Amino acid sequence: LRPKKSRQLGMNGSVNISYVQGNYPKSPNSFNFNYRKGKVNFFTSGGFNFWQADRRQTLLRKFRQTGQVYVFDQVGTDVNTSRNYNARIGLDYTLSPRTTIGILATGNYNSNFSRSTSIGDFYVVGENTADSSIVAGSTEKRPRKNGTVNLNFRRQLNKTGQELTADLDFIRYRSTLDQFTDNQVRFPAAPASTYLLRGILPSDITIYGGKIDYVHPLRKESKLEAGVKSTYIQTDNNAPYETYNEASGKWVDDVRKDHFIYEEQISAAYINFSRQLNKWGFQAGLRGEHTNTTGRQVLVDKSIPRSYFQLFPTAYVSYGMNDQNQFGLSYGRRIERPNYQDLNPFQMFLDLYTYNQGNPFLTPQFTNNIELNHVFKSRLSTTLNYTTTTDIINDILKQNDVTKVTFQTKENIASRRNLGLALSYNAPLTKWWTTSLYGNVFNNLYKGLVNNVMLKTDVT
Predict the structure, then answer these.
(1) pLDDT of the residue at 41
(2) Strand, helix or coil for residue 340
(3) Are 111 and 82 a contacting pair, CB within 8 Å?
């Protein structure tokens, strides 16, 4: 973590105020201030953002049941209002000409409110009258706050660029979803059925991290870099959903009530070597990561433990043929982990028949990428890439024809092969006019299993 800081001596700062008007207003505002004198550098910044927007979604679904085809025609709308406050404050102190220590603290508070409505009709294909309809309304209040503290150390070991840096981080996220939903299912010749659901759902994420990096320049334009890093993450998500029981006139526990705790510990180390040899440039690196995770559904006492070790090599070769032509060839392997909310198995409602649900069984996806690049006159860049990804995390819809319920979730559904060609051109046309052009053509091939059906498709 190396935030940008002004190197100007004395005091300086700026204030930005703006207003945007679309269907709804928006107003992003910010300030920053910096003071540097002697061995001390003090800096701070902050902002306030107001944001409001609406959304409309239409859904048309078909269900096959007892020889008939039902259609669910649905329209949903919501209006969302958000107010965000953020602040950052830090201090660097120069212990000696080669040693600097620093502390940085950031904070953020977001107040979010949304109101949504959903109207849908069930009818049988071939019949003119509706079998039933649903009218649903819900409100959500979601205050979020987070804070981070970073301690950093930098030591220049000599004048040749040998350097040691270290960071310690503590991050805390806290949010609470206060949700209320009212669902009324109406029938042509029967009384309406009402379903009320409420819940105050807290979510806590705590992250501890530390890393050390070392840079050692070598002879003949060579450099060696190495480092270690370790992080520990815990998320605690509680969903004490309640439904209203008309017979007793009381709120009781709903079947959707849940409590999910997720813990993740990642230890990593890397080494990287680079060298420039006349017109040739070489770079090679290797990172190893060991991961331990445990997802636990508290109410049913069910745990999902995982432990794995992965290596991530990188390599790069460059060749400067002349002042007009430069070539580069690179290879890299990387990992993309599911985010913490995607692992959370809770249900987020639009109505009784439509909701979103996380998946605690998600695993990371892995990508191998090869790129060949050519730059002509520092203006025209051409890149050819070949990429393969396994265990792709993607949104899918699951549907129950009997209950007529459809929900969206994420799964590791497929592998992908991507082949692409990209061209970009950047150059001044006149002293006052510069053009930037970009074009990309690619082909994606997907293979996998979606809802127990084989998938094989490609798109160009």
Answers:
(1) 94
(2) helix
(3) yes
- What is the residue whose two structure tokens read 């191998």? 368
CA–CA separation, 411 vs 377, rounded Å?
45
Which tokens go with 231?
């992080």
Q: Which whole number is the average pLDDT over 318-335?
A: 96
Extended strands (E) in 255-379: 258-277, 280-297, 302-320, 325-336, 347-351, 354-357, 365-376
Residue 161 vs residue 112, higher pLDDT: 112
Among candidate residues 194, 167, 120, the one with its CA nearest the CA of residue 354: 120
What values do phi and psi take at 55, rounded to 5? Answer: -145, 145
**8 Å CB contact between 396 and 409:** yes
Q: Which amino acid, residue 84?
A: N
- State the pLDDT at residue 453: 86
**Residue 229 bridge partners (DSSP):** 211, 268
CB 355 within 8 A of CB 347: yes
Cβ-defined contacts of 8-16 (< 8 Å, 24+) = 8/34, 8/36, 9/36, 9/37, 10/35, 10/36, 10/37, 11/35
Q: How many C-alpha atoms does 11 have within 13 Å on its Cβ side?
A: 0
Q: What is the mean pLDDT of residues 189-207?
A: 91
Structure confidence by residue, pLDDT tens digits, 22-51: 889 999 999 999 999 989 999 999 999 999
Q: Name the strand (E) or helix (H) holding 63.
A: strand 40-65
Give the model's confidence band at 5: pLDDT under 50 very low, under 70 low, under 90 confident, else very high. Answer: low
Distance CA 154, CA 235 (A): 31
Question: Can you give the pTM of this predicted structure?
Answer: 0.85
Q: CA-CA distance, 429 to 127, in Å (whole number)?
A: 64
DSSP state of 24: S
Whole-angstrom Cα distance, residue 406 to residue 397?
7
Between 7 and 51, the more confident residue is 51
Residue 9 has pLDDT above 80, yes or no: no
Q: Residue 108 region, left (φ>0) first, then alpha (ψ -120 to 50), else beta? A: beta
Q: Which residues contact 387 (CB under 8 A, 6 or more apart)?
A: 367, 368, 369, 370, 416, 417, 418, 419, 420
